[in-house]
Design a protein that fits this description.
Helix content: 10-25%
Mean pLDDT: 94
Structural class: alpha+beta
Radius of gyration: 18 Å
Number of domains: 2
Distance between the termini: 20 Å
CATH topology of the largest domain: Alpha-Beta Plaits
Length: 251
């Protein structure tokens, strides 16, 4: 399921320029103290050495401007109404969030109060073998490499030939976790619209104390429909529950 939450208030929402953890924390708080909430927050679904939370969310959408505070730190000021999308193949996750946000008189973002204006359940698109998608939060794909005794993270670009195979491998793990079977005849390929790497779409996002490199933009996709559907709800690539890999289908 996918929902879009819209909020209103009397003042602008002011957040750190890197605010993914604020939205993630808001979503975890909405889940309450159920056993499922504790499991998802503390453990997640394990596949070999990887753990997956199986949800994603978009950037905050709204009229905004960038500010610099007295310490030289950049902030983002977002004028209400503002909204963001939350997606997951786990209905219980979406139900918990929806039920609890509707109960609240006020919703708090980084200590600032806003009122829920609307909660819309997004109508699913038709999932086909080909689609044009637009990322509404950056897509991330990486691997951990070793140089002697030093480990480091290498982030791939959508123009790298390994990008699509890594996306596919990631999706196959999620598919098995969600459906408890392996995908039949799986296929997934993402195509940038330009031949040369367009660095305008490269984004460096700080999540807590770690910088993560991701990519926005519009891309063509060829995929088995069931994998495209799964990606639509889990997000594409890595670090989805930190606010990465959420996309919409535009064609």
């Amino acid at each position: 399921m996918r929902i879009t939450l819209e909020f209103v208030g009397g003042k602008n929402l002011v957040l750190p320029i890197h605010y993914n953890y604020v939205v993630q924390g808001f979503l975890y708080d909405l889940m309450g103290d159920s056993d499922f909430a504790a499991f998802l927050h503390n453990e997640g679904f394990q596949y070999e050495k990887r753990k997956f939370k199986l949800f994603t969310f978009s950037r905050i959408e709204g009229e905004f401007k960038i500010l610099t505070d007295s310490k030289g730190q950049k902030k983002i000021s977002i004028k209400p109404p503002f909204k963001f999308t939350v997606a997951s193949p786990l209905d219980e996750f979406i139900f918990d969030i929806s039920k609890n946000v509707l109960k609240k008189e006020y919703c708090h973002f980084n200590g600032q109060k806003f009122i829920l204006n609307s909660l819309n359940i997004d109508n699913p698109p038709v999932f086909k073998n080909k689609a044009r998608i637009k990322f509404i939060s950056p897509v991330v794909m990486y691997t951990t490499l070793k140089d002697g005794d030093i480990k480091y993270t290498y982030y791939y670009s959508p123009w790298d030939e390994k990008f699509s195979p890594l996306l596919l491998n990631n999706l196959l793990k999620k598919y098995e976790l969600v459906y408890n079977v392996k995908a039949k005849d799986p296929y997934f390929k993402l195509y940038p619209l330009s031949e040369k790497e367009d660095r305008r779409y490269s984004k460096m996002i700080k999540y807590k104390n770690v910088y993560v490199k991701g990519w926005m933009g519009i891309y063509d996709v060829e995929s088995s429909p069931e994998l495209l559907e799964l990606a639509y709800y889990t997000g594409l690539g890595a670090k989805n529950s930190q606010g990465f890999g959420c996309f919409e289908i535009i064609e």
